[in-house]
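Blinded run. Sample ID left blank on purpose so nobody reads anything into the name before looking at the predicted structure. Input follows.
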Amino acid sequence: MKRFWIFWCVAAVLITGACSVEPSIGNEVGDFSENISLVSWNVQTFFNAEFDGSEYSNFCDSSKWNREKYSVRLERLCNALVELDADVYVLEEIENESVIYDICNQLSGKSWTAGNKWNYSCFAKEENSAIGCAVLSKYELRDMTVHCVDVRTEKEKQPVLRYLIEVSVLVKDKSLTILANHWKSKVDGQEDSEVWRQFQEALLVQRLLELKSRNSSVVICGDFNKDIGEFNLDESEDGSKVLLNGKSLKCTDSVSVLCSWLGQTGNDYVNCGSYYFKGNWEKIDSFFIYGNCVLLKFEPCVNSLWCDSEGYPNGYKVYSGEGVSDHLPVKAYLRF
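Blinded prediction complete.
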């Protein structure tokens, strides 16, 4: 019989003091709901200029990567974040906490109004990982925890899997739970890596079932490295929902969540995506809505600050210092 270990870890919160989808109707949340905008963005291997040995190889050559290039890239990213103007950012592929300090300090000089600044942030990454995920917010962040799965029953050793970050955003007297994800990539092959994404999906299901018992408002977002067409549709619904499966961790339940990319007929009617690979758009950066939360609007964001002249993401090139990220940021407007 297979055995699985699941660990829930508490992490310190670091406080630093264009295609469009029509509104999708979720659960009613009463007369006292709050609106909020969120951006999820894989910012593509965002390393700083300090070398600690965990960097990817192309960032280890000082002739290609240095403090000057980092400063330019930091400025470019912060200009993009100001342009996107979200209340909350979930950023994937950040190297460490010092990058978050740099981003927050840079952003602090771009607004004269304290209420328009991103005064709260948190970050987490697995010990042996080169990159992690961060959350930046105009609103107070509370109760951050990180979750991971430790599987020792597969034929191959478990690769480094990024944490599932759980954190609450407090808007007035209402709380929205964010579950930030960065699932295993397909760099080792789609079939060989799928088993690990399934474990990450099952861990997500376990957290959703726990949050359901608390009657929570939940938004799940991040880079899932899995196109929306690879998820299971919830056939009992109107086609705008997918079924997240928990069976990899011996959970018999599945969870139905509203998907930002799907229309109410179940057709994937957005013509672009968030990641352009080998001549095709992929919809791997997503929002899933669960509980007492309504998706008002969703869009992959196209802008000349981070796209080329044809609207494709302008990936960062270390050798030239050009570009921003090989992913588009995706933005959601929510009521909870």
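Unblinding after everyone has recorded impressions. Helices lie at 67-84, 97-108, 190-212.
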